[in-house]
User: Which sequence fits this backbone?
């Protein structure tokens, strides 16, 4: 999942205004609690892929992980719901990062955050598919692999290089639709109205006689409710809670629980996962409460800088862990056994994420940022010359 620098403006201590003040507030310290939650989400997804889903991992371990890890499986089988925590946090921090930015600044920041590390991890996945095939699946073709570089493989009907990449498309559609609101200018009223309209669209798309299929792309069931919940909680953080925001958050949760229970029940029967829908609902509700605690400043005392360091590794970890981790498991399990393989594979993935962050992500972001800023200055200079000439 993508990351955002968790630097936030200081919220007002007075009553919530209908429109936010135009003045730019001084930045507050980093929200380490959100970094900690991102780390929990990433590790939960990693644990799920390695030990919690028998339908996929049997091909990699050679035996059902339910038998290899009987103590872990009942817990890690719910690890996929770390994705729902990611989406809640994303609604919060994307709204946070877009405030007081122009559309161009927002697009540039999202591009720099998402693509450099993604391109590298896609290259790693391409090599892994061909060097260490699992024998149970057909890997993406060269054309599909190239399509993955666009991050548009879902609408172009290309196979993912890494199964976890589906979440990046969900994030990307969120950014695209939120960009429309940024274009008009972010304020309390406009963002809250957008949330209500978007949430309603995610409900309408589920009607059997729906005549607007494009809504399914930009108002995805379940995901939309989570993003809206995150945005509502950011508005609480920035302006303080009021009745309208509590209503929006409640509506987000109610739509989410309907979507989630239906989806969780389907997963149990369709994909061989023995998970209880209401356990999943309790877990995602806990995620709501944790992010809400951040929004209401209940976790402001969490200020360990280590969470910021670990938080920076979440996106590289998410990108690399699945195919690379499974390749390690397939090749290490025979000589090492289950637990040593699990621990070593996890350690290697963590090291790989750190190396990707330090040696690829940060340098490439600095280089691209400098080039983009240089080109922006040149474009501004050309515009001034053209206006002067006319």
Assistant:
């Amino acid at each position: 999942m993508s990351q955002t620098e968790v630097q936030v403006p200081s919220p007002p201590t007075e009553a919530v205004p209908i429109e936010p003040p135009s003045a730019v507030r001084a930045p507050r310290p980093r929200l380490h609690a959100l970094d900690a939650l991102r780390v929990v989400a990433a590790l939960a997804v990693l644990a799920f892929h390695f030990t919690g889903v028998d339908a996929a991992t049997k091909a990699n371990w050679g035996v059902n992980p339910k038998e290899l890890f009987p103590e872990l499986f009942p817990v890690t089988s719910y690890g996929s719901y770390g994705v729902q925590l990611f989406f809640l946090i994303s609604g919060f921090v994307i709204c946070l990062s877009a405030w007081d930015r122009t559309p161009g600044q927002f697009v540039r920041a999202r591009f720099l955050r998402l693509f450099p590390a993604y391109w590298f991890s896609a290259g790693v996945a391409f090599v892994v598919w061909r060097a260490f095939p699992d024998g149970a699946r057909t890997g993406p073709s060269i054309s599909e692999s190239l399509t993955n570089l666009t991050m548009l493989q879902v609408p172009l009907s290309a196979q993912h290089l890494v199964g976890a990449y589906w979440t990046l498309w969900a994030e990307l559609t969120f950014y695209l639709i939120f960009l429309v609101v940024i274009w008009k200018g972010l304020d309390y009223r406009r963002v809250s109205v957008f949330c209500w309209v978007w949430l309603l669209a995610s409900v309408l798309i589920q009607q059997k006689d729906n005549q607007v299929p494009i809504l399914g792309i930009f108002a995805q069931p379940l995901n939309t409710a989570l993003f809206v919940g995150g945005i509502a909680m950011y508005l609480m953080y920035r302006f303080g809670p009021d009745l309208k925001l509590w209503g929006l958050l409640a509506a987000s949760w109610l739509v989410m629980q309907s979507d989630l229970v239906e989806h969780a029940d389907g997963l149990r029967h369709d994909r061989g996962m023995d998970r209880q829908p209401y356990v999943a609902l309790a877990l995602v509700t806990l995620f709501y409460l944790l992010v809400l605690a951040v929004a209401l400043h209940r976790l402001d005392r969490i200020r360990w800088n280590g969470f910021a360091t670990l938080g920076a590794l979440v996106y590289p970890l998410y990108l690399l862990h699945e195919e690379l981790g499974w390749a390690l498991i397939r090749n290490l399990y025979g000589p090492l056994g289950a637990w040593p393989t699990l621990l070593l594979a996890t350690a290697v993935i963590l090291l790989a994420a750190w190396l990707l962050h330090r040696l690829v992500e940060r340098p490439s972001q600095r280089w691209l940022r400098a080039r983009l800023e240089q080109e922006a200055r040149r474009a501004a200079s050309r515009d001034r010359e053209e206006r002067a000439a006319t």
Q: What stands out?
A: The chain is about 70% helix and 0% strand. The mean pLDDT is 87. The two ends are 47 Å apart (CA to CA).
